[in-house]
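Example record

The entry below shows one chain as it appears in the dataset: sequence first, then structure tokens.
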Amino acid sequence: MPDRIAITGLRVTGRHGVLRSERQVGQEFVVDVVLWLDTAPAAIADDLSLTADYGAITTRLGEIVAGEPVELIETLAARLAEACLAYQPVREAEVTVHKPHAPVSQTVADISVTIRRGRS
């Protein structure tokens, strides 16, 4: 069973959504990521280059959320998972995109989409 690195509660303002107002004004998105990888080589060598650098990954994820708008948080989650898999040691990535201020007709605490992607 591979090891995991979790990034929880990454908060970034983005302009994603179907409604024009969402794309113009923007809103906060919260991202949680779980990365599956073998951390043993990095632990043995005590070498950051042999693991997933969560500092670099959080920076990249933030750039994506703050970047080019998409209509669906499913699309955003897929882009974030793809970015995680670009880091060589990562075998699988589970990404949850939370949209706590989604414009829906009922009161909700959160709307989220979770996807899991792996290397082909």
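Notes for this example: DSSP finds four helices and four strands in the chain. The chain has one domain: 3-118.
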